[in-house]
Design brief:
alpha+beta; 171 residues; globular
Length: 171
C-alpha cells in the first residue's frame, strides 16, 4: 500500500492560469506539470502522521482566511529539471510559515530543506524541457485567488494529482 502524499498550492486567477496552460501545451503538448495546474506550492509534498487525517487537512484549508496574493516575478530559473518563474512576496512567505506552524509535528515533509528559510517562491512552467522563450512571455505580477489541497502520486513518475478541496481567497 502506498502512503498518500499531499501538497497545498496557490492557483492563479483564471485568465493567467489559462495563459500558462496554453504555453505548456505549445511547448510540451500537456497543460499540466506533474498532474497539477499552474501553481505555487506553499507546502511541499508531505505525508500524514497517524494522528492526522485528510479531513483534518480540509479543516486547516477551511481555516485559511487570507486575501488574494499578487507575486512579483523577477526572473526565470532552471532548477534541476524544472523551468520556473521565481518571485517575491512577503505576505506569501507569511502564509507559508503559518501553514508550516499548523502542520508542525503532524506531517512528514519530502525535501524539508526547501521549507521555512529554504522556501523559494516559484511557479513551475515546465519539467524536463527548457524551451527558448522570451522572459516577458507572462506578466511580471500574477495574482493568486485560490488555495487548494491536492493528493499527489507518491511514485517518482508524478503521473497524477487529485484535487481534494479548494477555497477562494478574499478580495
Amino acid at each position: 500500500m502506498n502512503i498518500k502524499n499531499y501538497t497545498f498550492v496557490l492557483i492563479p486567477e483564471k485568465i493567467t492560469k489559462e495563459k500558462i496552460e496554453n504555453l505548456r501545451l505549445e511547448y510540451t503538448g500537456n497543460k499540466l506539470v506533474d498532474g497539477l495546474p499552474p501553481h505555487i506550492s506553499i507546502k511541499r509534498r508531505f505525508t500524514l502522521d497517524k494522528d492526522l487525517s485528510e479531513n483534518d487537512l480540509k479543516h486547516i484549508l477551511d481555516k485559511f482566511n487570507t486575501s488574494k496574493v499578487t507575486v512579483h516575478f523577477n526572473n526565470m530559473q532552471k532548477f534541476s529539471e524544472v523551468f520556473a518563474l521565481v518571485g517575491e512576496n512577503s505576505k506569501l512567505l507569511d502564509y507559508h510559515k503559518k501553514l508550516l506552524g499548523e502542520l508542525e509535528g503532524k506531517v512528514k515533509t519530502k525535501n524539508p530543506t526547501f521549507e521555512g528559510e529554504g522556501f523559494k517562491i516559484h511557479l513551475t512552467l515546465f519539467r524536463g524541457v527548457s524551451p527558448n522563450i522570451a522572459p516577458n512571455i507572462l506578466e511580471k505580477e500574477i495574482t493568486f485567488d485560490k488555495i487548494c489541497l491536492y493528493e499527489l502520486d507518491p511514485s517518482t513518475a508524478r503521473s497524477f494529482a487529485n484535487k481534494i478541496a479548494c477555497k477562494s481567497l478574499k478580495d
